[in-house]
Backbone:
């Protein structure tokens, strides 16, 4: 019988077709962290795009200082992934690439805040439904990572 359990040392243990696979606990924890974050934010983008527009508008009203807030959030999420999930093969590579993309976004926004401000100002009430697309992408990445955890 195939199953997936977490043993007492917090290593994910998968038994598939009689084969046991152990994954490092920290990598597994970071994948779970990402699945939770991407799922909640993804659903929020789909269900409440106008609320995200209001947030982006408030941040853009703060000028380049508002861009720094976005950069800090991107750096926080990305650097946690990069530091503790350095996996360059299989499905987990998706998370590593996402982490690096967030670090690079933070670098660009910190270094060229005028560019980040332009991006913040792009999303308006008239374009609110465009935020559904990243919401769906976040949910697809979360589903892929979750699938990678249980196979």
Residues:
């Amino acid at each position: 019988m195939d199953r997936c359990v977490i043993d007492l040392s917090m290593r994910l243990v998968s038994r598939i077709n009689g084969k046991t696979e152990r994954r490092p606990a920290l990598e597994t924890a970071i994948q779970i962290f990402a699945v939770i974050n991407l799922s909640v934010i993804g659903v929020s983008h789909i269900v409440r795009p106008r609320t995200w527009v209001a947030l982006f508008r408030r941040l853009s009203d703060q000028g380049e200082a508002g861009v720094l807030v976005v950069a800090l959030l991107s750096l926080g999420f990305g650097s946690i992934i990069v530091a503790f999930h350095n996996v360059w093969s299989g499905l987990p590579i998706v998370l590593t690439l996402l982490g690096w993309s967030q670090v690079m976004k933070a670098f660009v926004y910190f270094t060229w805040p005028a560019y980040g401000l332009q991006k913040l100002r792009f999303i308006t009430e008239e374009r609110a439904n465009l935020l559904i697309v990243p919401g769906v992408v976040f949910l697809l990445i979360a589903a892929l990572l979750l699938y990678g955890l249980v196979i």
About this structure: The helical segments are 25-47, 49-61, 64-84, 93-111, 113-122, 132-150. Confidence is low (pLDDT under 50) at residues 6-10.
